[in-house]
Write a structure and sequence with these properties.
Blueprint (H helix, E strand, L loop, with lengths): L21 E5 L5 H9 L4 E3 L22 H4 L10 E5 L9 H8 L4 E6 L2 H14 L7 H14 L16 H8 L8 E5 H6 L1 H12 L23 H22 L4 H4 L2
Parallel strand pairs: 1-3, 1-4, 2-3, 4-5
Length: 263
């Protein structure tokens, strides 16, 4: 069902109270910036005034029993023509307590998740962190150190060196499903967003119950040329690490991910 703008009374008026109604919550390096760009062009969508608000992954916001959501809402300026309010912070899917906090804020929240081949995602993540000078190890050494940390601490999380763990999608989705029903989730394959953006945007308009999007051409955002290419032993390391995970994801979502297995 889609809304028809001129037959419905305004959802938001000046000084009216509101709740954010949807979040792009994952995954990092999965295409969230491109999707954020597409959504900002839709007349009925109010997006946060910046990408990556980082409210629900910030422990400082949740120290007090009475949470001040005004600090969250200051990032949004819904107008009369907007039907839904959303933001994109891809770490929410991965970061501890974020999903529980989102549910406590709005149990009807709709969550959009983009999943990318975890092998490609891990390498893209490492390239980004090295460009920011936050990572100084080579890719293989960085992965092996993370793997050692993961084995030593079951609750290990790191905002930078999480090349492997962020790609454990089935575990993260199952944790989301402890709070939300599957009907609250729209899970998209990165390849489909890249190759068939209008088909994906049609899914999103139905999911959010808004008018259809105008036709869009694929948008490449933050695309960068890597300083090095993946080499065979790195690919084998990643294939071995993600073998069981990809099979679990196929079973969970009913997807055919043979292409991910044979990266």
């Amino acid at each position: 069902m889609s809304f028809v703008s001129d037959t419905i009374k305004p959802f938001f008026t000046k000084n009216s109270e509101f709740n954010v109604s949807f979040i792009i919550c994952g995954t990092q390096k999965g295409g969230t910036t491109a999707l954020d760009y597409y959504l900002r062009a839709h007349r009925e969508i109010c997006m946060a005034n910046k990408k990556e608000v980082h409210f629900f992954d910030n422990d400082e916001n949740f120290k007090l029993e009475n949470i001040n959501y005004k600090n969250y809402h200051k990032y949004f300026n819904p107008m009369e023509h907007h039907r839904v309010i959303g933001e994109a912070t891809p770490i929410y899917m991965y970061w501890k307590n974020s999903i529980k906090r989102i549910h406590e804020y709005n149990p009807k929240m709709k969550l959009i998740i983009i999943l990318r081949n975890p092998i490609e995602r891990a390498f893209s993540h490492w390239n980004m962190e090295t460009e920011k000078n936050k990572e100084h190890l080579n890719f293989k050494d960085a992965m092996e150190l993370e793997l050692s940390n993961l084995k030593g601490q079951s609750s290990y999380q790191d905002r930078v060196r999480s090349y492997l763990s962020r790609g454990l999608y089935s575990k993260q989705i199952k944790q989301i499903l402890e709070c939300f029903k599957m009907e609250n989730l729209l899970i998209i394959q990165n390849e489909k967003l890249r190759n068939l953006p209008n088909e994906v945007l049609a899914q999103i308009s139905t999911f959010l119950s808004i008018a259809p999007f105008e036709k869009n051409k694929h948008k490449n955002i933050h695309s960068r040329k890597y300083k090095k290419e993946l080499i065979s032993d790195e690919i084998q390391f990643l294939q071995d690490f993600y073998s069981t995970e990809i099979s679990s994801l196929e079973e969970l979502l009913g997807w055919d991910l043979e292409g991910w297995k044979n990266n």
